[in-house]
Input
Amino acid sequence: MKYDYLIVGAGFAGSVAAERLAAVYDKKVLVVDRRPHVGGNAYDTLNEHGVLIHQYGPHIFHTNSQQVVSYLSQFTGWRPYVHRVLTSVNGQLLPMPVNRDTINRLYGTNMTEPEVIRYLESVAESVAEVRTSEDVVVSKVGRDLYEKFFRNYTRKQWGLDPSELDASVIARVPIRTNTDDRYFTDDFQAMPDAGYTALFKRMLAHPNISVSLDTDYRDVATVVEYSGLIFTGPIDEFFDYRYGPLEYRSLRFRYETVRADRALPAAVINYPNEHDYTRVTEFKQLTSQVHRDSTLVYEYPCADGDPYYPVPRPANRERFLRYRSMAEQSHHTYFTGRLGTYRYYNMDQVVAQSLTLCGRIMGSPAAAILQEG
Ligand code: FAD
Ligand code: UDP
Output
C-alpha cells in the first residue's frame, strides 16, 4: 500500500493533520504511534475501578479560538467545566492563581482591590528587563509571595530555579487583584462529553485513514511507501540527536482510588512547599462521572521517562533552532506538535498549529481549511 502521508504520533498534532488531509484533500494517510492507544498525552480510559482517568495527567480543554472549538465540535459534544485550583501554603488551602482572597487570607487582612494593588506595588521589585520566570513574579508581587507560591513549586516541577527558566513558564499563571478564582479565563472551557479518546476515535474514523498502534516510526520508515511525512515526536530524536539531546521534563503518576463521592475540596490541590509531588487531581471533578469510587492522581516530576514538557530556557532554544533549520531543509517532511516543534503548547494551540500546517502543505490559507468539514 502506498500512502500520501505517513503521520507519526496519534495525539492532537498527528490526528488533526490526518483528519484534515484525509477529509478535505482526499489523501491516503497512515498514522503510527508507538503507544498502544490513540490520543497521545490526552488519552483517557476507564481504570480497573471503572473510573475515567487521564493516563498522562489531568487535561482541561480551554481556548479563545472559536475556530478550534468549531473544528473539534465535529467530533465531540462538550460539558461546560470551569477549572479551579487550591494551593497549600502556610497550612491553608488558598485560591490559585493568586488573587485578592489569596492575599487577604494569607496575611489575615481585608484589603480592597485598590489597597491590594497599592500593596503589591509596594512589595514588587524593580526588574530592568523581565527575562526569567523569577523576574515575572518578583516584579509583580515581590519576594514573599514568590517564595511561598512559586519558587519551590517550580524547582520541584522543573528541577531548575525559576531564575533559570524563561519568563513564559510562570507567566502561564496570572496574578489577580480581583477575586476571580478560575484557573483559566478563556472564553471556552469545557470537557469533551464522552472523553478525549472518543473524540480521537471519531476524528480518525475516516476511510482514508489507517492507524497502526504499537508501531514506532523506525519500524515503518523504510517499509511503507509514502510521499510526505508529518512527524509529531521529539525533533531531536528524529535527527538522531545530531546536535545533542533537547531537555524534556517527565512525570511519574501515582494513582489512588478511594470509596468517596468527592475526596478533595477542589479538582486540583497544588503543593508548592510540601511533598515530592506538585499536585493532586480528582478526576471525577473534571469529568463529572457519577461513580461510588473516586480516583486521584499525584504528579511526581522527574528527569527521565516519557518526554512531557519541553524545558523553555535559552540553551534548549538554541539547540532547537539548529534542529529546526535541519527540518526546513528536509523535503516533504513537516514537524508539528509539542514535541515536534519543542513548544510548551496547550491542546488548543497544537490543534491550531496542525490546522495551519495542513493549510500550508496543501497551499491553501489556514482560514479556508478551518471552515471545511
Ligand atoms: P503528544 O500528545 O505527546 O503526542 C505525540 C505522540 O507521538 C505520542 O502518542 C507518542 O507516543 C508518539 N510518538 C512519538 N515519537 C514516536 C515515534 N518515533 N514513533 C511512533 N510514535 C511516536 N493541555 C491543555 O490544553 N490543557 C491541560 O489541562 C493540559 N494538561 C496537561 C497535563 C500534563 C501532565 C501534560 C504532560 C500536558 C498537558 N497539556 C494540557 C498539554 C497537552 O498534553 C498537549 O498540548 C498535547 O497533548 C500535545 O499533543 P501532541 O500531539 O503534540 O503530542
Ligand atoms: N506554578 C507555580 N506554582 C503553582 C502553579 C504553577 O510556581 O502553584 C508555575 C510552575 O513553574 C509551573 C508553571 O507555573 O510549571 C505553569 O503552571 P501550569 O499550571 O500552567 O502547569 P501545567 O498544567 O502545564 O503543568
Q: What stands out?
A: DSSP finds 14 helices and 17 strands in the chain. The pocket of flavin-adenine dinucleotide (ligand 1) is lined by residues 8-14, 32-35, 40-42, 56-60, 216-217, 232-233, 251, 308, 337-339, 345-348, 350 (CB under 6 Å).
